Amino acid sequence: MTELRIEGLSKDFGTFRALDNVSLDIPNGKFVCLLGPSGCGKTTLLRVIAGLEAPSDGRVYVGGTDQTNVPTHKRGMGMVFQSLALFPHLDVAKNITYPLAIRGVDKAAQRARAEELLDLVRLPGLGARRIHQLSGGQRQRVAIARGLSINPQVFLLDEPLSALDASLREHMQIELRQIQQSLGVTTVVVTHDQTEALTMADLVIVMKDGVIQQAGAPMDLYHRPANAFVAGFIGTTNIMPCTVADGAVSVLGHSFPITKGDRIATQSGAAQLSVRPEHVVIGGTTEGLAAEITFLRDLGESLHVLMRVGDQEINAHLAPGHGHDLAVGKSVNIRFRNGQKVVVQ
Ligand SMILES: Nc1ncnc2c1ncn2[C@@H]1O[C@H](COP(=O)(O)OP(=O)(O)O)[C@@H](O)[C@H]1O
Ligand SMILES: [Mg+2]
User: Fold this and answer.
1) Residues 186 and 24: beta-carbon distance below 8 Å
2) pLDDT tens digits for the chain (345 residues)?
3) What is the residue with the minimal CA distance to atom 14 of ligand 1?
4) Whose CA is nearest to atom 16 of ligand 1?
5) What span, in angstroms and rounded, lies between the C-alpha atoms of 31 and 25?
C-alpha cells in the first residue's frame, strides 16, 4: 500500500502563492505526470511531496500514513533532480549507492545493489567510470539508478529528460516507463512536455498557476478537456470563441448543429469551441466556414494546412494522399467532423 495522497496542499513564498489547495490521489504503482507550463508550481509540488519544502498548508500521505512532518530521508522516496546532481568526485557505482551509504548499508550490499541497478538501466560494467566519462543519456541513467537505489516507495523525478536531444528523449521515455512497470513503483514525473506525459503516464495532472486544472487518464484529457487551457495544452487544437443555443454552436458567424458525440459543457451562452486539427474537414461542401489557406506544411505523415477565417487562425491536419488540390491563397469551405466538437467554458 504505497499510494500517495495529497490533501489541500498550499505553498506560499512570502506573499506569492506557488501552490493553491492542491489535492490528489495517486493509486499504488501508477505512473503520474505533473504537466504544466514553466512556473506553474510543478517543482514546488514535487519538493513538498519529497519533504524538501514544508507546505504552508495541507498534508502528504504515503500508504495511508501522514508524512507531512517526516524528514526527507525517512520518507522512503527516491528522487531524480532536474540538474541530476551527480557527484563528479565519485565513480558511477558510488553515485548510485550514495543514498545507501548515507543510510549505513554495508559495502558488499552496496556493491551488489549497484550491479543490479546498472543492469536495470542498461549500463552493465560501467560502475568504475567517472561521471565526466559518460554521455548525457548515460548520466541520466545513473541518476535514475541512484533514485531507485533505496527501493523507494515513491519515485519522484523532476524533468528528468529535459537535457537530452529529441530522439534520445523519446527513447528514454519508453525505457523509463518500462523500468517503472517492471518495478511497479508509484512514480511522479514533472514535465512541461505533453508528448512526454502522453507517452509515459497512467494519469496526467495538468497544472496552471499553482492550481490543478484537471487530472485524468491521458486520453480522457485529450477527448474531454475540462477547460480551454487543458484542451490547448494536451495535443494541438483550434480554440475559437463560440455561443451555444438551440442545439447548435455558433462560431465565426456560422452555426453548426450539435451532433451525437460532441462534448458540450454548456447548454447556452458564450463559451469556447475546441476542434482538433485532424477533425477539421476541408472542401467537399459549399456550406461551412469560408477560409483562406495561408500556409502548407507537408510532413510526409500528414499535411498541415494553416487557414484564416477573418482574424481566426485554423489548423487542419490531413492524412497522406489528401489535399493535393490545396494551395496558399486558395479559398476553401471548412467544417468540423460530427461528434468531434468540444465546447468548454
Ligand atoms: N524558493 C522560492 N522562493 C520564492 N519563489 C519561489 C521559490 N521556489 C519557487 N518559487 C516560485 O514559485 C513558482 C513555481 O515555481 P516552480 O515550482 O519551480 O515551477 P515549475 O517547476 O512548474 O516551473 C514560480 O513563480 C517560482 O518563481
Ligand atoms: Mg520546475
Assistant:
1) no
2) 579 999 999 999 999 999 999 999 999 999 999 999 999 999 999 999 999 999 999 999 999 999 999 999 899 999 999 888 999 999 999 999 999 999 999 999 999 999 999 999 999 999 999 999 999 999 999 999 999 999 999 999 999 998 888 888 999 999 999 999 999 999 999 999 999 999 999 999 999 999 999 999 999 999 999 999 999 999 899 999 999 999 999 999 999 999 999 999 988 899 999 999 999 999 877 789 999 999 999 999 999 999 999 999 999 999 998 999 999 999 999 999 999 999 998
3) 41
4) 41
5) 12
Whole-number Cα distances in Å, 239 to 242, 258, 329? 9, 17, 23
The arrangement of strands across the sheet holding 289-298 comes to 280-282, 331-336, 289-298, 303-309, 312-318
- CATH of the domain spanning 236-344, picked from 2.40.50.140, 3.30.390.10, 3.90.230.10, 1.20.1090.10: 2.40.50.140
The H or E element that residue 100 is part of is helix 92-101
Cell numbers of 83, please? 540538474
Residues within 6 Å of ligand 1 by CB: 13, 16, 18, 36, 38-44
Q: How many helices (H) and strands (E) does the chain have?
A: 8, 21
- Cβ proximity of 344 and 231 under 8 Å: yes
Pairing verdict, β 303-309 and 312-318: antiparallel
Q: Which ligand is nearest to the CA of 22?
A: 1
- Of 3.40.50.670, 3.40.50.880, 3.20.20.60, 3.40.50.300, which CATH number belongs to 4-223? 3.40.50.300
Query: Per-domain residue ranges for the chain?
Result: 4-223, 236-344
